[in-house]
Design a protein that fits this description.
heterodimer; A: 374 residues; mainly alpha; 74% helix; disordered N terminus; B: 529 residues; alpha+beta; four-stranded antiparallel β-sheet; 19 helices; 20% strand; globular
């Protein structure tokens, strides 16, 4: 996937190229209007060859540059989609926020105060202007700085995701390798059944089960998992024990099964057979010969799950009363608090884009053949 | 039997039963007199409030978007937060609903009830040490009556024409007479703030029993006891912690595992399970909130009173109270007032499910074909189920109701008050006048039944400035009958407020004013370790 994207997205870096060669036309992003469908031989000689040479010598740097450019474009598209989406939702901020207790006078006051009577394109552009400079504005509902609040909430979300990740990723890869080693024998079957059960149960149900046994029946775990500023580190750790356990159970199976499948796939190749004929032990074959070659798909699925741990855990946050980003965004959507929704949406999109990029780069590092796609 | 013993003990604690009565009932239970005497003594002793401890409440209704400014408080969570740190001029009596003094010591209306004079309490200090002055009061009320204000109390306050000081007394001049003015000032937005909150509305500085220690919107709020409180009969614990818990199951888990002392909004569907936990007590209070089915009186086919009557008789109210509220509520009688209001019109016959009468009116109306009812679970909990039950009971009267489930998102903008027949809810209002003025006056902003009757408006306005209670009660009776027999409102039930607390929580007051002991739960209860 990485390779194809790289080739197709060539023109995106047009400005960079012309910048070096064609002087002042550079700033006018000529690739949109000036570049003909068929590559112009002259341009090819000036810019194209430079880019090709650069991409050939520094394939990784070229890839990262291209993906960064693409990411920025994607983020703009996302912001436009979020804005349009909220615009299309029934009800606006003033009526939704005041709810049934609103009087037309109060509604009118709020609309005027927030400039909701202006056309949407104007509001979008002024918001975008601020966001580019890192200023997400103030929340319509609470009138607090969005950037400040997000800093707090994002920190909480990352804290939870970090611990879930450092437990689940090694565990999943380890269990995957174990399952391959005992392929179709009892340990493999046990691992499969348990992971399938975990993946089949909705996360809120797993959460409720954990709460019922560990908090209500046995009283050994902390609940609710509310964290706040003045809390000590160990207190925080004990507060997030149950949500982390839930998240680990939810993402474990996915990664574990992918690891198992990828390694099994490699196990059928000729060089593994050679290793077997050399008389190497099963575990050594898996660890030294099969696993490194199976790493690309595993990295991809790990990246997806990491992104999920940051942006997809709303339900877990609600069940465990954990003040993270998901809960923050849901609160904001409910009252159509645009600045907050937009900021959350952009940050979520940035996480997905960044993690996918990191996955592609890591996959290429792990498999040098991907650096020069044909 | 032990349940009943607990009940008796509780009655004693609440001061609802004296020793003689208690002994009599205990004897009926077969409890020896000496045992009963000790029991009475311990129950009576338990009504002495204890001070100290850390009270934790798990509450629904908080959001990251909550504002610190009391003018913009809307959620259940902020309602309790405000009651903890602030005071209004007037409070309402927990069981009679009459106005009682708070920051205003006393008040006096003019003969036409259009000018009111309030005496403001002296020697009250704000949390920052500044003394409360009449200036603070005036500025606060001005902030909430300003036309440009975003205050949730704007609708209540708009009849106030002028606010001024007469020496050390507060004088309020109204555009028209209003006998209920003191009760309007109990609105939870109207917390008196230093300088009216004009310099910093978000400061959360007030005269309440607790000082705000920390506040994180949508997460948590903590409070410490205000040592300089001007009252001694409240604020019993040293510190209070409110935790935002929007998930019903999380609240129940937190209460049954002893992590919090009190939770609000217990789902009627799970209340019977929660009741089985030995450490938990269900606290249900009858309230003024009601679940409604609303028809537009000016839109076909509902512009026909016979059809409206048919639809009223076709509803099985008892079943709805049992199935939708789990029994935690009371049957309604198609007007928006119940006996928790002062001057409730007694003796109006209860309307019951009567398929024959429904069929009679339906035939007389000349209508045929299905009637379309729009609903959604955001209208009230269980609204869709209620609509389906209604469909079944109406079918027995030969009336076909088509239930259409609408998306919850946007229900309040696109369906309620727009479509001719839909489900909805109303929270209570402090006075009958306010309830009728909000939704049944011809010119009301939220006249969601399109009930437009000049004769009704006339009585409503007359009753507003009538200071003679007997006459006023009579007027309210006439109005109730008009809404009941000619209006577009079908009101099957008034819902109880269902909360739950651990057994160590004592002194909970069942306040008819609003949910969670009218928001005062944390200031009224104490912990019995």
């Amino acid at each position: 996937m990485a390779g194809r994207l790289m080739m197709e997205s060539g023109p995106i870096t047009g400005p960079v190229v012309t910048d070096a060669t064609a002087g002042e036309t550079a700033l006018r992003s000529p690739d949109l209007s000036g570049v003909p469908a068929k590559p112009d031989p002259a341009a090819d000689e000036l810019g194209g060859t430079f880019w090709r040479r650069f991409a050939f010598r520094r394939p990784l740097a070229a890839l990262i540059l291209q993906r960064l450019g693409l990411s920025v474009g994607l983020l703009f598209a996302v912001s436009l989609m979020i804005f349009g989406g909220i615009e299309a939702l029934p009800g606006d901020f003033a009526t939704t926020y005041l709810g049934q207790s609103a009087t037309p006078q109060a509604v009118e006051n709020i609309r005027k105060d927030l400039g909701l009577d202006r056309p949407w394109s104007e509001r979008y552009l002024s918001w975008l202007g601020g966001a580019v400079q890192g200023d997400f504005g103030t929340s319509w509902a609470s009138r607090n700085s969005v950037s400040e609040q997000i800093g707090n909430r994002l920190g909480n979300s990352l804290f939870l995701a970090f611990f879930a990740a450092i437990i689940s990723v090694p565990l999943a890869v380890g269990l995957g390798m174990l399952a391959v080693q005992f392929r179709n024998r009892l340990p493999d079957k046990i691992i499969n059944v348990i992971s399938l059960a975990a993946i089949s149960l909705p996360e809120f149900f797993i959460g409720y089960l954990l709460i019922m046994f560990f908090a209500v029946k046995w009283g050994v775990a902390t609940f609710p998992a509310t964290v706040y500023d003045s809390m000590g580190f160990t207190e925080r750790l004990s507060a997030i024990a149950l949500p982390v356990a839930t998240l680990v159970l939810v993402v474990l199976a996915h990664m574990m099964r992918m690891t198992r499948a990828a390694i099994l796939n490699v196990m059928s190749s000729a060089y593994v057979e050679t290793a077997e004929l050399k008389g190497l032990g099963t575990f050594r074959i898996i660890a030294r010969h099969a696993a490194p070659n199976a790493v690309a798909p595993v990295i991809n699925v790990v990246a997806l799950n990491l992104a999920y741990l940051v942006v997809g855990v709303v339900v877990v946050e609600v069940v465990f009363v954990y003040p993270g980003m998901g809960q923050y965004m849901v609160d904001a959507v409910t009252v159509r608090d645009m600045p907050v929704v937009q900021a959350c949406g952009l940050i979520f999109a940035a996480f997905y884009i960044f993690l996918n990029m990191a996955a592609d780069i890591l996959a290429i590092l792990a498999n040098p053949r991907l650096r020069h796609p044909r | 039997m032990s349940d009943y013993k607990d009940f008796l003990a509780r009655q004693v604690m609440l001061g609802k039963m004296n020793r003689r009565e208690f002994l009599g009932r205990a004897a009926a239970l077969g409890i020896a007199v000496s045992t009963a005497n000790t029991l009475f003594a311990s129950s009576a002793a338990a009504q002495e409030p204890k001070r100290g401890g850390h009270l934790k409440l798990g509450l629904e209704g908080a959001a990251a978007t909550d504002s610190r400014d009391p003018a913009k408080a809307l959620s259940q969570f902020m309602f309790v937060v405000g009651r903890n740190w602030g005071d209004m001029l007037v409070e309402s009596h927990p069981t009679t609903g009459e106005p009682v003094p708070a920051l205003a010591e006393s008040w006096e209306p003019s003969a036409d009830a259009a000018t009111w004079t309030f005496t403001i309490r002296k020697g009250v200090k704000f949390h920052d040490g500044k003394e409360l002055t009449i200036d603070d009061v005036i500025k606060t009320l001005q902030r909430h009556t300003d036309e440009k204000s975003e205050s949730g109390a704007l609708g209540v306050m708009k009849s106030i024409k002028e606010i001024k000081a007469d020496g050390d007394k507060l004088v309020l001049m109204l555009t028209e007479g209003n006998a209920d003015l003191p009760l309007l000032l109990t609105d939870y937005h109207l917390i008196i703030q230093p300088n009216g909150g004009t310099d910093n509305p978000d400061a959360m500085i007030g005269t309440g029993p607790y000082k705000v220690a920390s506040f994180e919107p949508g997460v948590r709020a903590t409070f410490e006891r205000n040592a300089d409180d001007w009252r001694t009969d409240r604020g019993y614990v040293d510190s209070v912690e409110l935790i935002a818990m929007n998930d019903a199951t999380a609240r129940i888990a937190a209460l049954s595992s002893g992590q919090v002392h009190f939770i609000n909004r217990v789902d009627p569907k799970t209340v019977n399970l929660l009741k089985k936990a030995p450490t938990v007590e269900i606290l249900n209070t009858s309230g003024r909130g009601h679940y409604v089915f609303i028809m537009h009186c000016n839109t076909a086919p509902f512009d026909n009173n016979d059809l409206r009557m048919a639809l009223k008789y076709a509803m099985d109210r008892e079943t709805l109270v049992q199935r939708i509220l789990g029994g935690y509520g009371k049957v309604g009688n198609d007007f928006p007032i119940n006996d928790t209001y002062a001057l409730f019109p007694e003796g109006i016959e209860q309307r019951v499910y009567d398929p024959d009468k429904a069929a009679f009116h339906y035939k007389k109306s000349g209508h045929s074909g299905p009637v379309l009812l729009r609903t959604s679970d955001v209208a009230f909990p269980g609204a869709v189920d209620a609509a389906v039950l209604y469909q079944a009971s109406a079918k027995k009267a030969g009336i076909e109701i088509e239930v259409k489930r609408e998306p919850g998102d946007g229900y309040w903008s696109n369906v309620w008050n727009v479509q001719p027949f839909s489900t909805s809810y109303w929270g209570g209002r402090p006075t009958q006048d306010q309830m009728y003025s909000t939704a049944y006056l011809s010119t009301a902003d939220w006249n969601d039944t399109r009930f437009k009757r000049p004769d009704f408006d006339k009585i409503l306005l007359e009753a507003r400035s009538e200071l003679d209670e007997a006459k006023r009660k009579d007027m309210y009776r006439t109005m109730a009958m008009m809404v009941r027999d000619e209006g577009g409102l079908i009101l099957p039930m008034f819902n109880d407020f269902v909360n739950a607390a651990g057994k160590t929580v004592k002194g909970y007051v069942h306040d008819i004013g609003n949910d969670m002991s009218n928001g005062y739960v944390a200031t009224r209860v104490w912990l019995d370790a």
